Amino acid sequence: MNTTLRSHSSGEIKFSGIIPPSLLKLIIKGAKPTAATGPFGDFLFQEMQSPEAVVWYNNYLLTKDDRFTDTGKLPEMELQFGLNNSFSSQTGGLGARKLHDGSFNLVYVPFVETELDFEKGRIYTTLDVLLTPALVILLAQYFPVLDSFLEKVAKQEAAVLCALDQSTTHEMKKIIDAILGNPYSGGTQKFYISTKVTELLIVVLEKITHYPTLHRVFFPKEEIEKIYAAKDELLGNLDKSITLLILSRKVGLNMTKLKIGFRQLYGSSIATFRLNARMKEATTRLNDTADSVGDICYALGYANPQHFSKTFSKYYGYTPTQLRKENGRKNGADDGKVN
Questions:
Q1: Are the C-beta atoms of 253 and 226 separated by less than 8 Å?
Q2: What is the dotted CATH code of the domain comprising 4-210?
Q3: Alpha-carbon span 315 to 276, nearest angstrom
Q4: Backbone angles phi, psi at 32, to 5 degrees
């Protein structure tokens, strides 16, 4: 890591390769992990590198409320995604910001000087893609939305691409999942990351150019917390039938606010979010377990394997069995090293 992280309550945080047991389930294949444990809780940072970008998958589990200061002398151009829970920050040159769960932005700082506020009892998850300026400049000829941002970068002034953080789309989430689930190793892994990061940046710029988020989330904090609770309820009960009415009663928020707030935070309807989560979990189980297609089908709440396979095929364009066969071929192939 090129920065130093300090806890306001515990001082400078020391990192090692020892993974806290509480975060072991979040390890991803092929990434370089760095972790820390202390009175503040447990942190896990996982790094994947390519010539065009460095990808950091970050998880913070707090045991008490705390503020952290992140400092570094080098400039950073970073595509930031909030993946789980929202947190406040104060960045030199950019002022106060709040990165919401389900949102993203592109940020540049000539040096790192950021304060982060976390609350206890939560796992905060972010994906930070450190981009080379060359890649962004290359795409600027196709996306004029980058012009004013790059003018500030050229002057080494802190800059944020969008005045409002943007909603992460389903297409972006699928690319992020592909990056985190990178099936390759060696040189092929780096090439895959480069390809996916470029694809992700293009999708981001397309969204900002043609379908920008124009309105802030106006829900008060307590209602946003209930929307987060609804998301957790959906993810924790993929095998169960749950209606909007039941969900709204469980979290204590009326159906209209829940529907509108969920779409504002996550960029999709509740039904689409649930389908996306089921398909992601299905893919994980098909790739990482020996469970039968039938077992996976019932574990995700589908009535029968035929319905599950039809839904999966419509979603991805290939069947669960075809995915298993392709995964088997990759596992039986070479290690991806480039001579």
A1: yes
A2: 2.60.120.10
A3: 9
A4: -95, 115
The pLDDT tens digits of the residues spanning 106-148 come to: 999 999 999 999 888 888 999 999 999 999 999 999 999 999 9
- Domain parsing of the chain, residue ranges: 4-210, 221-332
Look up residue 257 and give its two tokens. Answer: 């606010």
Q: CB count, 10 Å around CB of 324?
A: 14
Same fold yes or no, 4-210 and 221-332: no
> What SS3 string covers 217-256?
CCCCHHHHHHHHHHHHHHHHCCCCCCCHHHHHHHHCCCHH
Spatial CA neighbour of 68 closest among 119, 125, 114: 114
Hey, is 211 helix, strand or coil?
Answer: coil
> Letter for the amino acid at 337?
K
Taking only the tens place, the pLDDT of each residue in 280-329 is 899 989 988 889 999 999 999 999 999 999 999 999 999 999 988 887 65
205-252 per-position pLDDT tens digit? 999 999 888 776 667 878 888 998 999 999 999 999 899 999 999 999
Percent of the chain with pLDDT over 90: 65
Distance CA 194, CA 54 (A): 9
Q: Which pair of tokens denotes residue 214?
A: 């124009």
Question: What's the topology of domain 221-332?
Answer: Arc Repressor Mutant, subunit A (1.10.10)
Torsion of CA 304, 278, 223, 229, to 10 degrees: 80
* Residue whose C-alpha is closest to residue 71's, from 107, 115, 20: 115
**CB count, 10 Å around CB of 138?**
13
Q: Residue type at 21?
A: P
